[in-house]
Design brief:
With 124 residues, the protein is α+β, with helices and mostly antiparallel strands. Helices cover 35% and strands 15% of the residues. It contains 4 helices and 3 strands; from the N terminus they run ααβββαα. The protein has a 3-stranded antiparallel sheet with strand order 1-2-3. Strand 2 and strand 3 form a beta hairpin. The longest helix is centred in the first third of the chain and has 15 residues. The chain is globular and about 40 Å long. The N and C termini lie far apart (63 Å).
Length: 124
């Protein structure tokens, strides 16, 4: 009977496990989540960026995990960008409805086609 050696190769290629966050990092996340509860979808700025799927705020940047588009909002004048996943569902839904042409993939292609390629990916 033939032994399976693929298990070792798979284990070696596995992403590194996210580490436990420090108390300071947990507090930082709590501040962002709290700020998200106060975002008014009518006045909020939105933006997207490519971020690690298991670390959207870039605290630890673990290796081997996938990256995808992540969406963020902030109140006018605030420096705190809050990931849509940390927003109340009603706020997230309202932001998507209001900004879907800027956020939905492939966001920005409409501006390129219209000759407005200098517009940034953020409206804030």
């Amino acid at each position: 009977m033939k032994k399976k050696t693929n298990q070792l190769k798979t284990a070696a290629a596995a992403p590194e496990a996210p580490r436990r966050l420090s108390p300071e990092e947990r507090e930082w996340l709590a501040i962002h989540r709290k700020a998200g509860r106060n975002i008014d979808p009518e006045t909020a700025g939105v933006m997207w960026d490519y971020r690690c799927d298991v670390d959207v705020y870039g605290i630890e940047n673990p290796k081997g995990w996938g990256w995808s588009r992540k969406y963020f909002a902030r109140s006018p004048g605030s420096r705190i960008w809050v990931w849509f996943g940390d927003l109340p569902k009603a706020t997230e839904h309202s932001l998507w409805e209001k900004h879907k042409t800027k956020l939905a993939f492939p966001a920005g292609l409409g501006q390129i086609a219209d000759g407005h390629i200098s517009e940034a990916k953020s409206n804030a």
